[in-house]
UniProtKB/TrEMBL annotation:
<dbReference type="InterPro" id="IPR050090">
    <property type="entry name" value="Tyrosine_recombinase_XerCD"/>
</dbReference>
<protein>
    <recommendedName>
        <fullName>Tyr recombinase domain-containing protein</fullName>
    </recommendedName>
</protein>
<dbReference type="InterPro" id="IPR013762">
    <property type="entry name" value="Integrase-like_cat_sf"/>
</dbReference>
<dbReference type="InterPro" id="IPR011010">
    <property type="entry name" value="DNA_brk_join_enz"/>
</dbReference>
<feature type="domain" description="Tyr recombinase">
    <location>
        <begin position="1"/>
        <end position="192"/>
    </location>
</feature>
<keyword id="KW-0233">DNA recombination</keyword>
<dbReference type="InterPro" id="IPR002104">
    <property type="entry name" value="Integrase_catalytic"/>
</dbReference>
<dbReference type="Pfam" id="PF00589">
    <property type="entry name" value="Phage_integrase"/>
</dbReference>
Amino acid sequence: MLLFPNMDPNEHLEQYTLFRVLAFTGVRRGECLALTWDDLDTQKGTLSINKTLTQGAGGKQIIQATKTKKGNRLISLDKQTLFYLRKWQMDQKRIYFMLGFNTSQPSQLIFATTKNIFKSLNTPSKWLRRLTDGTSLPKITVHGFRHTHASALFSAGASIKEVQERLGHEDAQTTLNIYTHVTNSQNKEAVQKLVNFLDF
């Protein structure tokens, strides 16, 4: 299943891979843009979250430690997300070689500008608007991918502890708030299903 029906992953591989990482890992925007290839373990199928890109003094983008102590975490990847990451890695090597960059260094950014530096923190939002404007696709923020990921985990039966660890929430209350939202929605759906079944 494609994230965006109107997007060809082969034509927009980097964008598709970035949004897939956001949707299927629940990482924060800054964590995603700080990722380097040595954070990816293709053998174990894991992604190490250990830093974040943020706005420093004077608007300069800088790398910092993750938002919370629990922010440092190892995330298991599904096979499709791993496939697209590996595919993008190969594509990046080819594209950036032509631009004069050697991207074989372990500390190479997974998502970089054509000057091989950090992308702007606004880039994912700009890409997202371009994809959804003028379409029937639901409007979602970049942070919305994280909330949707958590909701999907709860709907699939993940425990509060599992979701808290995967998202790197320091405070379990943050995770519980999402859980409450999801269960309230499910309760409403359950009532409607009951009404539909009994109201014949």
